Structure formats: C-alpha cells, structure tokens
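SAMPLE LOG
Freezer: B-3
Tube label: C17
Construct: single chain, 320 aa
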Amino acid sequence: MTDSTISNVAATISSVATTSASGTEAAAPAITFTVKADDTVRGTIAKIKNHPAKGLLVAIEGNPMAFMPNGCIAGRNDAEKAARRAELLAAPGTEVTVSVMGEPTIEHNNGKAQGRIKVSEQRAVIAAEKAARAAKASERSAALQAAVDALVPGSVIEGKVTSVASKPSDRNDGSTYAYGVFVAVAPNVNGLLHVKQIEGGHRALESIVAAGTVTVEVLEASIENGVPRVQLSQKSVASKAFFDQYPEGAKVKGTVVRVGEVADNLHGRIVELGSGDKVFLADDDTFVKSESALARGNSTRVVITGEIVGGFVRVTRKGL
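STRUCTURE (predicted):
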C-alpha cells in the first residue's frame, strides 16, 4: 500500500462527507489541527476493521486520523514491533502515547483536501525515557548540591577513608607517591585530605589509612562541573585536641623515643607523652648538663609551647 493510499484511507475516515435528507452531499468541514511537530499526545488505535499493512491509524481528538508506520511502533527490534502491532490490532480503542513527526499538512487529492499527520509511539517512548533520566539526574544534582552546601567551612566531621590519593613518583620506576587520602564526608561526597594538612605529615598518613577513619575540618567545599571539590584539614583538629589536653605552658612528663634528625633540618628528640602523643624537643631546648640524661628510653619533663614544627608540637626544658 502506497503512502498516497494510506493518506486516502485516513482522509476517508476523518472527513467523510455527510449527506443531507434530500440526498445532496453537504460541504466537507474545514480541516484543522490541534497538534504540531514534536508534540507528545494521547490517542487511540482506530476502531476500524482493516488497518493499512504498513502501519496503524491513530485517532487524536480534534484532528484528522493520524498514521503510525510499523517502524514507529514501540519496540527495541522488528520482532518486538511486530508483536506490539499484533497486540494493538487485537484491541482497537487502546490508548497510546505518540509523538507527532513533522508538521501536520493538508494535501489535495482529486479535488479533496485531506489532513495528514504522522506519529511515532517509539519516539514518545524514547522521549519519556530521556525525561525520566533527566529528572533522576536533576534529583541527584540537587541532592549533591545540598550535601556540599551543608559542608560549612570550619565544621568538624569524622569521615571514613575511602582511598589513598597517589600519583606516579619522580623516580620513573613505576612506583607511586601518596599525597593524601580521600575521606567520605557526606553521601556521594569525598574530600581530599592532603598530606600537608595532616598533623605529622607522611608519618601520620599510614596511621590514618590503617585506622580507616579520621576527624577532619572542612576548609572549602564547592561543586565544579558537577564534581564535588572538598578540601579538608586534620592539623587544626589534632592541634585543638592536643592543646585541650596539654595547654601552652603545661609541664608534663614523657619518654625519649628518638634522637637525632627527626625531620628535614630538624635535630633533637621525639618525646612520647603519657597520652601517646609525640612532641619535639630541639637540641637548643634541652637545657641539661649532660646529653646522656636525654638518651633514648629515658624519662624527662618538658614544657608545652604553642609552636608546631615539622608536624610536631614543640616543647622545651627551659623553665623547669
């Protein structure tokens, strides 16, 4: 069946001329359309005995009969489309959602005006799926924005370590260099805790990874190109907790656990306090008659200062 034949069938159904009581033919009504290209509308499968072999006729209220080609019936493949066609043919009057393909037109055939509308169920299905995906993406985006907005700079959060942040090392031997950890601070939001923001630097990084959780302060939180950018710090949290327990000027007792160069250009001793916290006693701050008094394993009293060097709180023996 040709498109011209299909058009004639649709026109015959939609605009059959009426006959007056005297037997004279009444004037055909003007053809109007209430739909336009790309509209998604509801229609019903026409209640007629024979549909065109190449498609189905769809009744859309207020419009001439529309034609839906077989290839535009909903289905992921030809077999599904054929099954759907059979289903619709078996139930005339079934409601379908269709998309209007192109602008409706009026064609003239043998002196008669005929309305022509082409529709697609498959296109409507695809549009609905696309709209559903867009709605879900919008919901996720709104939820992500709300989660990031709740991360107010200065707020303190205990988060789970999700992975180690690393990059190739400069040695070109295939090894990697860990420069921090990613920490879950909200649903679907990870923040970067850079090693420079870790109290104790790389020495403490391994302990944080092993612990699996860490208490951090939010430095900055934003979204760039749909991706959360959250910067975290553990230094301020660790320092606050330490100084809450050991205020500046406090005199405490500890054990020397390391002697010599404790970090780059830092020479002195690491003293472990009763709490397990380690502090730094520089060579210039020992104030003892014999260095042997501060050998590894010996106990000593120190005074807490408010200074942090090399990731350690600095202590002194001055004033004891």
